[in-house]
Amino acid sequence: MNRFEYVRARSAKEAAELLAGTKGALLKASGTDLIDRMKSFIDTPPRVVSLSNADGMSDISTDGGGARIGALVTLARLAETLREGPLAAIGQAAGEAATPQIRNVATVGGNLCQRPRCWYYRLGEVPCLKKGGKDCPAIKGDNRYHAIFETSPCPIVHPSNLGGPAVAFGATIHVQGSKGIREIKAEEFFTLPKADIARENVLERDDVITAVSIPAWKGARSAYLEGREKESFDWSLVNATAVLQLEGGVCREARIVLGSVAPIPWRVPAAEAALAGKKIDEAVAAEAARKAFEGAKPLSGNAYKVPMGRAIVKRAILAAAGLWKE
Amino acid sequence: MSRKVRTKVGFAGKVEEIEVTVADNDPDPWGADAKLSVVGTRVPRVDGPIKVTGKAKYTYDVAPKGMLHGAILRSPHGAAVVNSIDTSAAEKLEGVVAVHAAKKAGARVLFHGDEVAGVAAETEEIAQEALTLIKVDYEVKPCVTTVEAASKKDAPRVFENRPNVQPGRARGGADADGAIEKAPLIVEATYTTEVQTHSSLETHGCVVQIDGGSVTAWASTQATFGCRQGFAGAAKVEQGNVRVISEHVGGGFGSKFDIGREGHIAVELTRKAGRPVKVMLDRKGEHLHGGNRPSSIQAFKGGVDKEGKIFGIKVATSGTGGIGGGAGSAHPGFYTVGAWEKSETNVITNAGEARAFRAPGHPQGFFGMESFLDELAEKAGIDPLEFRKKNCRSKVHLAEFDLAAEKFNWKERRRAKSGSDAGPKKRGAGMASSVWYNAGGQGFKVDVVVSPDGTVEVRNGAQDIGTGTRTVLAVLVAEELGLKPDQIVVKMGDTILPPGPNSGGSTTAASLGPAARAAGLKAKKELLERAVRDLKAKPGDLDLKDGVVVKSGSPTTMTFKKLCQALGTETLHVTGDREKNYAGYSETVAGVQMAEVEVDVETGQVRCLRVVAIQDAGRVVDRLTFESQVSGGVIQGVSYALFEERRLDPNLGVMVNPDFLNYKVAGSKDCPEIIAIAFDVANAKNNVGMMGLGEPPTIPTAGAIANAVANAIGVRVRSLPITPDKVLAALEAKKS
Q: Hey, is the C-beta of B664 within 8 angstroms of any chain A C-beta?
């Protein structure tokens, strides 16, 4: 990695100011992603602003059915805290990420902000659009792990396990910038490459996520499921978050969000509509899952994501309704 | 000079007596009826505690005074010509002490990762930064990354002076076509496997120190003596002036025989800098140029009848070992296959070269062969177990087939009808086998040194690459001296110690074990001769047991410690020689594995639930070490079957997964329950009866899993790794 200045911020506000103060400065929480990128010279920040000593961002509260999750809460703690209840999908998503060692340090804010895992992006020596190159090597290359929706110009998939549940539950992302605080709806937080190739969300370079709040989903049930190759330490090939408001087995409202299929968490209103007013059973779930993948345009190497994804979505819906157990 | 000895050989229920010719120097072989107190028990690793507490020093931990940190600049292209290389900016960076351009202007780089330059600096970070300051102007050339692409008529040549396609020797030589045509049932199938990298947890590398004309190199290697030769060549000094130390090694699997380009670069940097230099590969360098198992494409054709008789098999294989060769697949094992004909082709591609990898040619070859046997059995309408027994010419395998079936519960686990489980998760069972060849080699020496305070040291210069050689030697010497293995200190991995083998072909333990036993026995004799005086005994009346000298027919004893005190100021130092192997019971070791899998037919994911591994290793010296080796082999086999695959971008020639995030190695949750069962065979190939164990247990696993997947879902995936996309595609193809 390059030589850089390392600064510990005592608060989110100070971190934002330190970021604003140096062009190209980058924020570090646990560093599980940033350090890898620096070691590959994908990022060469002159300044790294560390949040590890920052106050007030490591709490999690679940009063009133919702949750307010500090940005520095670890995935391990999140998985432990939100194991059950309406927000269970969040805990499940956190618990499926990476390895126990990584979950013990990796943070909620970092999980939402980690950069893509596209293997071309991660190879320092290979130019790609995100690194200022002229074209995308994945489109003509090995794209087995890439997107099947919104594949142009850059078919990354968003790597955050928590992104799907955040969108599904209508989370609010609390942000501290150098000029003040603001709130961003999860659904407006993530951005497509065609909007801005250089980033995956709307954060400015001096923005620091301070917390994520989830509204109360009284009576709702939820589930998060992944299709993957390995059981230990693997990225999902497809994941699905299902949130259902049920009354006597009949679905009043549904939120279905897919992961690892698009450059952003991919909400599928058609699948949600297919569930509304229906009594959840296997056929209804399968039909919603079919709808979820309408319009998918797989690349040369990832058509498998459609059948696999349908199974994962179907099971996530059934799991939320208490009709499927892994 | 030699003598004839009669000894009992074979396995339970099939013991026979044979005569072997034993060197005069060598102890009588332990036969099937040998009564042993430590050998064959469950002994924990003697170096286990220092390994788990971090006290064991690996090459990575070595830091002689003044040591610099090396780093290697690698080619970012699949193929290119170096137009120019400018290292001046790197040399000027503060903290950089030496820069070595491994490629000069005009040189070609042949693969992603080819070494271009090395830097030695005060810290690892400075060395890495300096690499970014080396300016290389490349003229990028077209590259070929697959057998198909490299075999095309107009394909760019990897080496200008030879074609990419290198036909190998034909084997078998029978007219298989003619025999197959006579068979009532004919099957044709093609199997493919991908390139697997060794992925040793400790990467390649070394620390080199040069003082005047002598070189000391700490190296992560499976060949201390081989590397002594390598470093001597690189540093242009006599081998006698080179000392290689490799106290602990974090795996090699066949990839760590020579000093590698990193060793040459380390020597150059050390010479330039005038200070010791450490060059350890990072994980990326390890994947790119740390060795690999070649890919394979195996096209089988065979004929069979309803009774299960195989008329003939013909197989044509090709594969790529990158810029190296060796892309062969081992067939047909110990099966009776009628007329046998085989041709092999090695295809050169722009990728790091293949190296020997745990049973070279075998996991891929046995995956193909054992899959094909299942397909023949299916065509004949015969259970795969029965089919194998009908066509097996090995008596040990025959016995193992039955034992495996019993321990695994084959009758119940094997699905009579594929896909018959309720729900989307379908279980199935499959089997495969292995054969291996080595009983160790001659010409090595093991010293036993007994000090007056009772310390017993066993010394040999070969390396323990994590297989448990230290423990095995401790057990054998403990057996002869009537001690416990943890009372023996084993010193290994240093070329100033007695000569030992390179760790290849599963030979290390069996090459050294008999010499250790001989040395232990010699030490015992010499010690007891001293006790004869004190205990007023005849030589034959004394024995060493449980740490004391016992006298037959007498309660008189003396502790081992007391016995050693009689040495006074002397140190007892004896040498055991590894004599040549005798013509024993069997030239090979046999293995059979059965696997149970669960396949999710909606997501395509395969999980391996259980593997029963029956393995013959001749005499098992330590059952815990045996189980550990077998489990490791099975895990590596599961990983090969389901996950591992080097992915090269076909356009750029770059490896897109040179890490452990996307180069997928089985993790703890991916490992099945492994039931490792030693099939004890008294083999009488050497005085212990040891045979090789390191490689064989990884041979059958992939084939057994592939056969289990086919049994579970009723359609065969003929390509490793068996990933969800392939399973879903196979199921889809079956539907339509």
A: yes
Which are the contacts of B374, defined by CB distance < 8 A and separation ≥ 6? B384, B430, B707, B710
- Coil vs helix vs strand at A175: strand
Q: Select from B607, B723, B729 the Cβ nearest to the Cβ of A231.
A: B607
CA-wise closest residue to A198 among A257, A154, A159, A250: A154
Instruction: Please judge whether B605 and A227 are an interchain contact, meaning their C-beta atoms are less than 8 angstroms apart.
Output: yes
Residue A23 pLDDT > 80: yes
Cα separation, B328 vs B365, in Å, equals: 8
Mean pLDDT in chain B?
96
Nearest residue to B430 via CA among B225, B641, B234, B251: B641
| Nearest-CA distance A16 → chain B (Å) | 28
The whole-angstrom distance between B154's CA and the closest CA on chain A is 21
**Closest residue of chain A to B425, computed from CA coordinates:** A326
CA distances from B367 to B312, B398, B403 (A): 18, 19, 21
Q: Do A137 and B607 touch (CB under 8 A)?
A: no
Instruction: Sort out which chain A residues have CB atoms less than 8 A from B724's CB and list them.
Output: 227, 229, 237, 304, 308
CB contact under 8 A, B724 and A230: no
pLDDT band per the 50, 70, 90 thresholds, residue B539? confident
Nearest to B124 by CA among B205, B51, B57: B205
- Using CB atoms, pick whichever of A41, A119, A231 lies closest to residue B657: A119
- Provide the pLDDT confidence category of residue B553 given band limits of 50, 70 and 90: confident
B145 touches chain A (CB under 8 A): no
Q: Which residue stretches of chain A are H helix? A: 12-21, 34-39, 75-81, 88-96, 100-103, 108-113, 119-122, 137-140, 163-168, 186-189, 269-275, 282-292, 305-320
The verdict on a CB contact (< 8 Å) between B603 and A229 is: no
Q: What is the pLDDT of residue B3?
A: 96
pTM, full prediction: 0.98
Query: Region B139-161: what's the mean pLDDT?
Result: 97
Structure tokens that stand for B40 in this block: 């064959």
Q: Is B728 on the interface with A (CB under 8 A)?
A: yes
Chain B residues with CB inside 8 Å of A97's CB? none
Q: Which residue in B132, B649, B658 is closest to A141 by CB distance?
A: B649
Q: Is A277 left (phi over 0), alpha (psi -120 to 50) or beta?
A: left
**Pairing relationship of beta strands B456-460 and B488-492 according to DSSP bridges:** parallel
B602 touches chain A (CB under 8 A): yes
Is the CB of B669 less than 8 angstroms away from the CB of A140? no
8 Å CB contact between A94 and A75: yes
Contact assessment for residue A68 and residue A90, using Cβ atoms and an 8 Å cutoff: no
Give the B window 58-87 contacts with A, CB below 8 Å: 76
pLDDT of residue B127 exceeding 80, the answer is yes
Q: Between helices A305-320 and B724-735, what is the axis angle to 10°?
A: 100
B664 alpha-carbon distance from chain centroid: 19
Task: Please tell me the distance from the alpha carbon of residue B85 to that of residue B675, in angstroms, as a whole number.
Answer: 55
Q: How close, in Å, is residue A246 to chain B by CA atoms?
A: 25
Digit-coded pLDDT (tens) for A49-83 = 999 889 999 999 998 889 999 999 999 999 999 99
CA-based nearest distance A288→chain B, Å? 16
Nearest-angstrom CA–CA distance, B524 and B549: 10
Interface pTM (ipTM) of the complex? 0.97
Does residue A156 sit in helix, strand or coil?
coil
Average pLDDT for residues B645-655, to the nearest whole number? Answer: 98
Residue A210 CA to residue A203 CA, distance in Å, equals 12
pLDDT of the residue at B135:
98
DSSP state of B128: H
Type and span of the H or E element at B149: helix B147-151
Interface membership of B146 toward A (CB under 8 Å): no
